[in-house]
Amino acid sequence: MSETSSSISPPLAKTMKVMTIIVFTVVLALLHSMLTDSGPTGFPEREQVATKGSGRFLKEITNPRATSHLCDRDRSVCNYFMEGGRNTTCCNNKCVETTYDGDNCGACGQKCALGEACCGGECVNLGYDKRHCGFCDNKCKIDGSCVYGICDYA
């Protein structure tokens, strides 16, 4: 009786194994690059605007220690910035809206405590304030209460 062997020779098997690993690696690399491609997303691209030079606002962003600040020379510039100039003022050479700015609540330099928010120019605890329950200007019923930022909780 003669025995026939249908096995592949060891050098050929090793070559096939290496080729399979290479093909698998290339497929994974291509798949990864396709999934992380930062190409078109279906949203319109932003239009690139050419400028002659960087304005003082851009300089302030790129150099936070720059001497040219937003409102250091003309404090009325803040009125043109923030939604018609409602309750805006110049604090530490920055235009701020003192109605809702937690670092300048009601006036320059008045910081709200940890856990408080600035609503209407006063620091309030959104978890327990009946006039600002959970968020600014969310009023609870006249006889209701505010607990954990929810009107009439429990």
Question: What fraction strand?
Answer: 5-15%
Give the helices and strands as they follow along the chain: HHHEEEEEE
- Average residue pLDDT: 73
Shape: elongated
> What is the rounded Rg?
32 Å
Classification by helices and strands: alpha+beta
Low-confidence runs of at least 5 consecutive residues: 40-54, 59-69
**Strand order across the biggest sheet?**
1-2
How much helicity do the residues have? 10-25%
Count of DSSP H/I helices? 3
**Terminal Cα span:** 90 Å
Number of strands: 6
How does the major sheet shape up?
2 strands, antiparallel
Organism: Sesamum calycinum
Protein name: Stigma-specific Stig1 family protein
Pfam families: Stig1 (PF04885)
Family: Belongs to the STIG1 family.
Protein architecture, described:
With 154 residues, the chain is an alpha+beta fold. It has a domain at 58-125. Helices cover 24% and strands 12% of the residues. It has 3 helices and 6 strands.
Write the layout of secondary structure elements.
Blueprint: H1 10-35, H2 56-62, H3 78-81, E1 88-91, E2 94-97, E3 117-119, E4 122-124, E5 146-147, E6 150-151
Antiparallel strand pairs: 1-2, 3-4, 5-6
